[in-house]
Write a structure and sequence with these properties.
The chain has about 425 residues and is α/β, with parallel strands linked by helices. The protein has helices spanning about 5-10, 15-25, 35-45, 60-65, 80-90, 95-105, 110-120, 165-170, 185-190, 235-240, 250-270, 275-285, 305-315, 335-345, 350-355, 365-375, 380-390, 410-420; strands spanning about 30, 50-55, 125-130, 135-140, 145-150, 155, 160, 200-210, 210-215, 230, 320, 325. The chain has a 5-stranded parallel β-sheet. A 3-stranded antiparallel β-sheet has the order 4-5-6, with no helix packed on it. It has a two-stranded antiparallel ribbon with strand order 8-9. The chain starts with 5 loop residues before the first helix and ends in a 16-residue tail after the last helix.
């Protein structure tokens, strides 16, 4: 598997992508008219894949463009394309938790329609066919060959079926009662998700009965190697839906995650069983996605992405409170007992450091620097670099002091910056692959 990060690869081959775009040969095909179709198509195009979106209904995204609604569900967990849309309804280009909370109270369909029109008009690599319909879909070698009712044809590497009835899936020969994903996500996962290795592979956040969760990537990608993805018809998503406007945030997040996965397989010309979890997660983070449902780390915080990456390693897990929300507790102290098990799995040199520092219990910044220099093989210039960037780059508010107790925020941000635990691969089952 190519070990270079997905987004980085896109930059490296930009000239080739430019050539492909000039011919506009489609690579990803999205079908559906709802918010999940919108998010999937937009994410695929943002990932620089030539994307065709066939809107099969009379109206695009009717959930948001038909009448004034209010959405109290999943409060504090908005992210990515969904949070960006909410911010734009308030005429802001910078999504934030506070803006999302305000925008959710009264979602005006006319304003949403104007925002959607503006976003789609500015989006490159996206071709939209409104009120379209698919006549046939079948495999042609490694590609999907699709024919529309107007007799136009195209071949694509990946298909996203975001229809309510899994229309393309059934048209391709599948039975709706046999839809399967790479992994079956049991009910028990939602009861103790924090302790599950699958938690490391989270790509779409939400809440069920007030309890926060993140959906594992393996629960959203096909169980076979045909690269026909579904959104709302996957078993785990069907289990979570309530069939009203409260589903919108989750469907947006699911659509964006599936769009990123479909773009991945199309770009690398591979199959869904070979999807690199960290690459897909990294692509979602690039566009403001949430991997872990930390309610107390706001989207607009400068260390948001670092804490998301760290949380996805399992090194600093969240705390589920009585209200069902998950908290990172950024200002709490970090103990060796908390981080040692996962760090020893991530880095081979980690075990030696902990053996040599058996007397360390609660970490100070000096301890963190010592660990980074040993495991990350950094020189004595590390402290000077961190001090220089303390407020400029890391945006820490407290004064720099090496003897200060290392909080979860400090540990997450510094290890993310200098050791890169998120870069260590994990399998679709969440196991660390060092």
């Amino acid at each position: 598997m190519n070990k270079i990060r997905f987004s980085f690869c896109l930059l490296l081959v930009l000239p080739m992508i430019g050539l492909a775009q000039s011919k506009k040969r489609p690579q990803v095909f999205v079908y559906g008219y709802g918010v999940d179709a919108y998010a999937a198509a937009l994410q695929s195009s943002l990932s620089n894949l030539n994307t065709v979106w066939v809107v099969n209904g009379d109206k695009m995204i009717p959930e948001l463009t038909s009448e004034i609604i209010s959405i109290p569900s999943d409060a504090g967990l908005d992210a990515g394309i969904w949070a960006n849309l909410l911010a734009k309804t308030l005429r802001s280009d910078k999504p934030s938790d506070s803006l999302s909370a305000i925008a959710r109270r009264r979602i005006n369909p006319r304003i949403v329609q104007n925002v959607i029109d503006s976003v789609l008009k500015a989006t490159q690599n996206l071709t939209i066919i409104e009120q379209g319909q698919v006549r046939s879909i079948k495999k042609s070698g490694k590609d999907w060959q699709i024919e529309l009712t107007d007799k136009s044809r195209m071949k694509v590497k990946a298909v996203v079926d975001a229809s309510k009835d899994a229309y393309l899936y059934q048209l391709a020969g599948g039975k709706i009662d046999s839809i399967a994903t790479r992994a079956t996500i049991p009910d028990s996962y939602f009861e103790s998700a924090v302790s599950s290795e699958l938690f490391r592979t989270g790509v779409a956040v939400g809440e069920q009965d007030g309890r926060a969760f993140t959906l594992p990537l393996s629960g959203l990608i096909p169980g076979d190697d045909r690269n026909l993805f579904l959104t709302q018809r996957t078993p785990v998503v069907q289990h979570l839906l309530t069939d009203d406007e409260q589903d919108i945030p989750l469907l947006m997040h699911v659509g964006q995650a599936v769009g990123a996965a479909a773009a991945y397989v199309a770009f690398f010309k591979t199959t869904s069983d070979k999807v690199d979890v960290r690459d897909v997660q990294g692509e979602l983070l690039k566009y403001g996605g949430r991997l872990i449902p930390f309610s107390d780390v706001a989207l607009e915080k400068p260390y948001f992405s670092a804490i998301q990456r760290t949380g996805a390693t399992g090194m600093l897990s969240g705390r589920i409170s009585e209200d069902g929300r998950m908290y990172f507790d950024a200002d709490e102290a970090v103990t060796v007992a908390e981080i040692k098990p996962v760090l020893n799995q991530l880095f081979s040199r980690s075990q030696i450091w902990f053996v040599d520092h058996a007397d360390v219990d609660t970490l100070t910044l000096a301890d963190v620097f010592g660990y980074i220099k040993f495991v990350g093989q950094r020189g004595n210039e590390l402290e000077g670099q961190v001090q220089k960037n303390w407020k400029r780059r890391f945006h820490f508010e407290d004064e720099y002091d090496e003897q200060r107790i290392a909080t979860r925020k400090y540990v997450a941000v510094l290890l993310d910056a200098y050791c890169g635990p998120f870069s260590v691969k994990v399998g679709l089952n969440g196991t660390i692959q060092r």
